[in-house]
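Collaborator request, handled under Task 6.
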Amino acid sequence: MYNIDNNQMRTLMKTLKTLFDIDSDAVIKDIQNDSRKASRNSLFTAYTGFEVDLHDFIGNAYQNGCRAFLIDQKHLARLSREYPDAVFAPSEDLMRDNAKAILEFYGHPDKELCLIGVTGTNGKTTTASLINQSLRMLGCKTSFFGTVEWLVDDTVLPAPNTTPDMLELVKYLRESADIGVTHVVMEETLEGIVPSPVSVLWEDGRFINHRQT
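Structure tokens returned to the collaborator:
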């Protein structure tokens, strides 16, 4: 688990308040996108994924004590009426700001690692695996996220999806950086390089191929 000290906490709160133009004394000790895990000092990020709109779970998070929410601007008026004692940080680009908040909270591990993403219609798994294996043969300490498995260094993790969601991914990036990993290889769905919860990580991208189906 990533723990932040008081100085980091103050920096985080200042950044979040500036980023989302809010005036609040709320203390944020963790970020959650699972309403069941949200608590009094959580920031619940209600971004809309490919299948689920987390705004639908704000009520559950509220019942668990959460009072700080990152939401889409269009829901602000309604939610402010329904939960008048909660703090809502409205965003015009929730996907982007969700990523910014998470990266800020975890100390921008993306800046400490070499991130390599592979996408395309065919051959992603093979290509990503070969890159990861080649880096390890060169003596690099790597983490790997793909269809077959997720690895943080040599620790094998469950791989329910090709790519972790943004919150889960950044947690693993933070863990990777903290244990001395230098390179992270990720197999990406095509959605990973068009606007998506993880696309903010990529400054440059390369297709290996693309076939319309």
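The cover message to the collaborator said: "DSSP finds six helices and nine strands in the chain. Residues 6-20 form the longest helix (15 residues). Please let us know whether this matches your experimental observations."
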